Amino acid sequence: MIIELRRKHISMALAMALSSSVAALTPFAEAQASDRPAQIVALTKKAYQTEQRDVEEFKVSTNATVRLTYARLLARGRIVSDSNPLRAPDMNGAIEVYRGLVSTSDAEVRVKAIGELADLLQRKGGVENEQEATALRASIARPLAGASVQAAPAADTPVNIEEDLRNRMANGSLDAAFDLLLLQARENPTEVDTLRSQMLLMANLSALEGDGAVGRLAGRYAGSFDAQEHPEVLKSLLVLAAGDGSDSLVGVIEKNREALLAVLGQEQTREIVWQLVNGGSTRAAELIALDLVDENVFGFDEADAKWAIEALNGAGSYRANYVTAKLYYQGIYVDKDIDRAVSAMEKMLAGADAARQESLVIADRFARMNLSDSLVAKYVLPIYMGAWKAGDLSVVGRLARVIVSAEKGGFYATAADMPVPPDQLVAELSSAYTNGDLSAGMMLGDIYREGRLVAADPTMARTIYEDLRQQYADMPGMQLKLREQLAKLVRQDLEVTRAYAAYHAELRALAGERNLWAMRELGLLLAKGGPEIETDVEGGLNLLLEALSEGYFPAGPNAADIALASGSTDSLRRLSDVFKKFDPRTLSPESKVQLAEVDFALKQFDQAEYLLSDPDVQELPIGQFLLAQVMLSSGKLAPEIAAGKMKDVILAFTGQDGQLIEFIQQLARQDRLSTEFMEPVLERLAKIADKNDMLAINVAFRLRQTWPSSRSLSFNRVVDWSVYYAARGVSEPLARIATNVNEAAVGPEKYRYLVDKVEEVLPAVPNNGSLRMFLAEVYAQGVGRSRDLDRARQLVKEAAELGNLEALNAIASDFHNGRSVGMDRDRAEDLYRALAFVGSNSSALALARNYSKAPSSKVHETRAFAYYIKAAAGGSSSAMVEVGRNYLAGAGVGLDEAEGIAWLEKAADLGSVDAMTQLYFYYFVKNPTSKNDDAEVWLDKLVEANVPEMIIRKVVLLRDRDREGNKKEIFSLLDRAETLGSQFARRLENIYIREYRGGVSK
Question: Signal sequence: where (predicted)?
């Protein structure tokens, strides 16, 4: 029977307590950590069979003591199954048995039954149950009929504390035994060992009753100095209490965990928890299941946690269901399973008592699970609403918190969709705050500060926060939080008040007191700089990492942005190390993406892939996109497949435009993407740009250079976006198009469209000389408009008055050539010189060429070179070619072939055909053979640039090398040169055709 098993277990503990050994007491003494669950299952099978037999005897027994044991068993809970030691309480069954003992003739059993029944009714809750419990306690407070009553000492009779404790100890009080032990430790140390042994003996006898007294004694003893000196006694008490699987003992362990770990160590403390599980404690199983989440203080491993989860799944208590719901909802140790989590939540609700207080406990637990807004609306909100409608104003703050959170998340489309009208909810909060609910005040202050539910009212928010500071005067933690809220108010008004110094000082003070919000805020300011604060990127990153390391995950994205922007391997590794202090399974999907981005930057592809493969992360577009990039970089995806996956994310994306634009830019960086492949992607970009999104327009301008034939980024569309800019005073994009446009390349129709748009927007850009010079050229040449020299001259004049260098250079050229004005070359030269001084490359080139055409002299050559080098430094590729020539010839500067080649290469990089031609002949002259790799590099570039003469040179070179092997390429090149207008290419092609037909080789 159970009683016999308990006696056997306690006798073992007593033998242990009376010895000085601290060897293990539990049935798991020789088992390894990974064997614990298997050992428990084996022991459970035997205990379950014994319990089943006992229950059959209990049900039919009329013995009061046996019936009391039965009631306690039902209240404690029966073993779930022969493989699961956790116990499912039957409160209603226990109450029924207890009620049957209230009138028993066994006075001792009757008193115990009445007290335990009252406790059980109190736990169950409800008005009727609480009234019955009060009546029961009152009945045992009165002397029982026929019982002798010991007279109380007179008020003025001095009480002998030691004698009183000994009397109470003689009557079985464990608390008195412990108090006497502490008293004698101070006054009579020689008796302490005897008292300690007596206390342990009493604890063994008390444990037979299973009334929880030993657990309470263990809790008191754990914090005493005597426990530090005698850890074997502490362990014995804990083992005695653990045998019954007392959930309350788990609370003792959690409360005193630091002391227990210091006195007993992690391994022995863990053994006691396993003993509690073996005794049927669901709360001990919860502790095991959640230990890894709670910093792994007891040292349980993942295998232990998984076993505990499965055991809890089989238990019927709402606490067990809560742990199951939490772990499966958040995917801790197990695959995330929303259906299973919701099922456990349903069981919690179904098993909860109808009493409002119990329902609120469940709602509070649900609220701490970070449920989605829809699940909060389904499971949490109805309970809070029910309590509120029933008149419980204590829930107003919690109710408001749920509603505001859902409103922030966009769960309510309009105020009418909210379960409580915003004005009414704020009024209820105000009433609760007025009636002393300080948490409602904090919520109210936040609502007024953020402008949620009602219009923002910083003054009201400040008044509430200041009042709360007085109310919480003796609570440093709340003082710190309120200073944070007040600092947020200051930040909102900074642009008006300009109180930067005061704000920064408060931030530094708060950060110094480890306020995590302030650490993040100050870290950002230091990293990015701002008014009246010196930039300190390293110091800012350090603060962000400190906040993140303390679990403040909002600092994560900021730290990641700074570390990634810096490109510093050290910064990235430090950020990675901080993230890796947390169990990856406890990180939010967004935090996992941030860590994966860092791993990706560090080329830790396997780690990044592991994080990104999480199903929750793959629900995020950024997770899908980044995984494709990672697998591409690690070689696990071919470029075309990876690009396809990124493209799929872009086409399916429904989030913010900024994120979509970032995706498009990253995809655009991939090599060799065809216009056809990119077209639907560019169309998505174009649609954002059509909404006049300036970032999208800028990106579209840039990507059109890569895919100029894109239909989505058509010339007319780009012009329209540029006109939108220009109409708002930003005319540079339109000016760039106008300056670089080629009528032959875009076609007459599109060119006229551009001219029309420039004419249309010109009044809105009174300070843009470039657009006026564009139109001046249009009217001067009669391209896109009828020729109108007067209009052209007027536009040049307007541009010149605006200081446009091109216009002023044009006027100087008119004086130099006598065009539309009298020739005045001195005046022209003065204008050229003045314009060159302020940065006009055209004027510098004009001066250089004038000096080059002058009679040959060192003076003229030197002056020419000086202006060529000035224009070249200003970015003129034509000037760079001339500088290169001068260095190669030693004209106006010392002969320096290396410097000359360098300048020619700079010009060639800018697309200058003249520079490429110079470089080709430079190398060819040095080695005029068909085996000249240096020359051929530039010859190929000229062929690529479609220079007919150079294409023909390449043809001759290929024919000399291998007439038959290069036949196909030879004729292809000749066709291209002919298309480009080379008559000689046509004649040469005919000659080669005749030669190939006649087999003649020349």
Answer: 1-24
Average pLDDT, the chain: 82
Segment 259-288 mean pLDDT: 88
- The pLDDT > 90 percentage for the chain reads 22
802 Cβ contact list (under 8 Å, min separation 6): 767, 768, 769, 772
Which tokens go with 723? 């006109």
CA distances from 590 to 294, 341, 593, 616 (A): 21, 21, 5, 9
User: Which residue type occupies 73?
Assistant: L
As given in the structure block, the two tokens for residue 347 are 């069981």
Extract long-range pairs of 131-138: CB within 8 Å, 24+ residues apart: 136/102
Task: Quote the tokens at residue 315.
Answer: 């238990």
CATH class of 31-141: mainly alpha
What is the pTM (predicted TM-score) of this model? 0.55
Residue 824: helix, strand or coil by DSSP?
A: coil
Alpha carbon distance 191, 893 (integer Å): 109
CA distances for 783 relative to 758, 931, 941, angstroms: 14, 47, 32
- Amino acid 827 reads R
pLDDT digits (tens, 9 = 90+) for 194-249: 988 999 888 888 877 666 788 888 888 888 888 888 999 989 989 888 887 888 88
Cα angle 158, 159, 162; round to 5:
140
Burial grade of 291 (CB within 10 A; 0-12, 13-18, 19 or more): buried
Least confident window among 295-299, 752-756, 884-888: 295-299
User: Residue 559 pLDDT more than 90?
Assistant: yes
Cβ within 8 Å of residue 150, ≥6 positions away: none
Q: Please tell me the distance from the alpha carbon of residue 73 to that of residue 87, in angstroms, as a whole number.
A: 10
Domain 356-492 has CATH 1.25.40: yes
Q: Are 587 and 579 in contact (CB under 8 A)?
A: yes
Q: Are 812 and 823 in contact (CB under 8 A)?
A: no
Q: Check residue 2 and give its pLDDT.
A: 41
State residue 839's pLDDT score: 58
- Pick the range with the lowest mean pLDDT from 97-111, 287-301, 314-328, 581-595: 314-328
Closest residue by Cα to residue 146 from 181, 195, 105? 105
DSSP result, 932-996 = -HHHHHHHHHHHHTT-HHHHHHHHHHHHHH-TTTTHHHHHHHHHHHHHTT-HHHHHHHHHHHHHH
List the Cα angle 923/926/931 in 5-degree steps: 75
- Rounded to 5°, the CA angle 458-461-467 comes to 140
pLDDT of 144 reads: 44
* Residue at token pair 């490429």: 916
Alpha carbon distance 755, 589 (integer Å): 51
How far apart, in Å, are the Cα atoms of 294 and each of 125, 290, 297, 582, 943? 31, 6, 7, 10, 69
Query: In the prediction, which pLDDT does 833 show?
Result: 59
| 31-141 and 356-492 in the same fold | yes
- Predicted pLDDT at 639: 95
Give me the residue label for tokens 């003025």.
156
The residue to which tokens 């859902």 are assigned: 406
Rg of the chain over Cα atoms, rounded to whole angstroms, equals: 44
Pick from 858, 909, 901, 908: nearest CA to 883 = 901
- Which CA distances in Å does 114 have to 3, 61, 109, 119, 142? 21, 19, 9, 9, 13
Nearest alpha-carbon partner for 430 in 457, 470, 405, 390: 457
Return the percent helix, strand and coil in the chain, to nearest 5. 75, 0, 25
- Cβ proximity of 629 and 663 under 8 Å: no
Q: How far apart are CA 734 and CA 302, in angstroms?
A: 63
Residue 758 has pLDDT above 80, yes or no: yes
